[in-house]
Amino acid sequence: MNIVFNVPFMTVSRFAESTGLSQSFVSKRTHDGTYPILKKKTKQQATLIDLVALTKRVKSWEEKT
After folding, report:
1. Are 27 and 45 a contacting pair, CB within 8 Å?
2. Contacts for 35 with CB less than 8 Å, ≥ 6 apart
3. Which of 46, 65, 45, 58 has its CA nearest to residue 19?
4. What is the pLDDT of residues 35-60, one digit of tens each?
């Protein structure tokens, strides 16, 4: 499976929509650290998934298998 993103980061809801995963699943993965997020400046700021870091992490996993 190949998913290509044209942006460096994405909101949880947009990521869920783009991948077909539920928003609650994506939120859980951001909270447990599976999906890296950008550091928030305020608590009110939307959670943004760092797609550059996620891509690097996936490539690293692929190299190990």
Report:
1. no
2. 15, 26, 29, 49, 54
3. 58
4. 999 999 999 999 999 999 998 988 88
CA distance 25 to 5: 19
Which one, of 40, 42, 65, 60, lies nearest residue 50 by Cα?
Answer: 40
Domain boundaries, the chain: 9-64
Listed in sequence order, the DSSP H helices in the chain are 12-19, 23-31, 51-64
For residues 52 and 8, is the Cβ–Cβ distance under 8 A?
Answer: yes
Q: Please state, in angstroms and rounded to a whole number, the distance separating the CA atoms of residues 34 and 60.
A: 14
pTM of the model: 0.83
Mean pLDDT of 8-31: 96
Element (H, E) at 50: strand 48-50
